[in-house]
Amino acid sequence: MGRITASALARMLGDPDSSMSAYRWLFLALRSLIANGRILHGTALPSERDAVAALGLSRTTVSRAYAELRESGYARSRRGSGTVAQLPGGPVAGGAEPLPLGGFGPLPGSQAVDLTCAAPNAPAGMLEQFEAALHELPRYAAGMGYYPLGIEPLRAALAEYYTRRGLPTGPEQIIVTSGALSSVAAAGRAVLGRGQGVLAETPTYPNSLLALKAHGARTAAVPIGPQGSDLDQIAAALAEVRPAAMLCLPDFHNPVGTLLDNAGRQRWAAELDRAGAVGIIDETCAELWLDDRPQVLPMAAFSPNLVTVGSASKSHWGGLRLGWLRAPRHLAAALARARMSMDLGAPVLEQLVLANLISSGQTLSEATRTALRENRDWMIGELGRILPDWEPNRPAGGLSLWCHLPRPRSSALARRLTSVLLAPGSTFAVEGHGLEHYQRLPFAQDRAQLEAALPAIAAAWEQVAV
User: Which residue windows are coiled coil (predicted)?
Assistant: First the structure.
């Protein structure tokens, strides 16, 4: 069970609302923090005495607010722990991201719009890229075809890509994999012993956690703030949990869409080093900026102990099935061994395609970037028209909106819909429950699909939001 300090709680609460009584404001603010996953289920709240000192409120005010939390089901008393936050009725059972072993997306023949997946279609010109790569293939066909760490042109292109971004990198630090999840799994095998802890922000990308849990890792959660990574809470959680590693998404966080600035990256890296934890930095969405190109360095520029995960799936095309690791030099051998324990290398032809794309400086195509930006703005406008009580963010990058719902009914909404497939908020919770006030809405699909999906979502919401 975690515990939140009185000083951290004071920062999260902000200034009191003078339009209501102090106890009512405190009760409503605490209830919102718990319901929205900012204070996790099972977290011990500060003692009344500590809360009084930190918040500058009377003992009567704090006692009454805590009592109302307990009466409304958002807290309980526990001997030795004081007041403990909880979700009314217990945690909502959540599932992993809907990628079942039996298949992905709608059943064959289904006309449902799949909004469980956030990934763009292949850009124009992909066929020509494969045709060009075929001319380079014969020199590789003369050998057996095993390149477990990747072909040299791709490793060199990726090394130059990081160097251009301000992170000097040699080809020997690049390890090519069959996708971001394979990279995360290899990183977990290299730096984690079975049963060791991994810290992750909640919400987060669920399949990365599954890849680490499959290796026997224990997960612990720290809430992400509405404006992005809460570095005070991250520092406190690292000190308390003492994990061996932490999964970090500083670049257009999936699903929240936030981007961490250089000062935040530097502090996060320093906190990881101080705790002796290896940062597994997921840069899958780093090239998905939609407005202005971010002026930030890769987070690994701030510490020699960070492992970077990259992927072509979002920036180029998921059909390439290629990812990579940018390894610190002292971990390169361990990561290479871990990667080779999984398979003997990615397909050569696809590696040639990606090497040519990256060498030419191509990431997300401008046509795709423009379509994503237009879809994002259109979807925000439509939600304001047909679902005015929903509060979508406006991410500067990424592939989806993270919408705050007026009622905690995300799972009920997903169950009600038949013509649209949705992943409820609990899908993205580290502990598999909570976040029922949130809904991820990808905007990478064709506009026609989105135009069909939103009215169906609005109609279903009317039925469940009661």
Answer: none
Has domain 113-122+365-464 been given CATH number 3.30.70.260? no
What are 83-105's pLDDT values in tens digits?
Answer: 999 888 765 443 334 433 333 45
pLDDT band at 451 (very low <50, low <70, confident <90, very high): very high
Q: Is residue 375 within 8 Å of residue 447, measured between CB atoms?
A: yes
Closest by CA position to 50, among listed 41, 39, 59? 59
Q: What are phi and psi of 446, to 5 degrees?
A: -60, 150
- Global confidence as pTM: 0.84
φ, ψ of residue 78 in degrees (nearest 5): -135, 125
Q: What are the tokens at 322?
A: 């290629």
- Topology of domain 126-359, CATH: Aspartate Aminotransferase; domain 2 (3.40.640)
Strand partners, 438: 404
Distance CA 100, CA 84 (A): 35
Instruction: Kindly indicate the confidence band of residue 39, based on its pLDDT and cuts at 50, 70 and 90.
Output: confident
Residue 298 is encoded by which pair of tokens?
Answer: 């890769």
Q: Percent of the chain, pLDDT > 90?
A: 73
Half-sphere CA count of 294, side-chain side, radius 13 A: 24
| Architecture in CATH of 6-85 | Orthogonal Bundle (1.10)
Q: Where are the alpha helices (DSSP H) in 41-179?
A: 48-55, 59-71, 126-134, 138-141, 152-164
Non-local (6+) Cβ contacts of 214 within 8 A are: 185
Closest CA to 423 of 437, 413, 408: 413
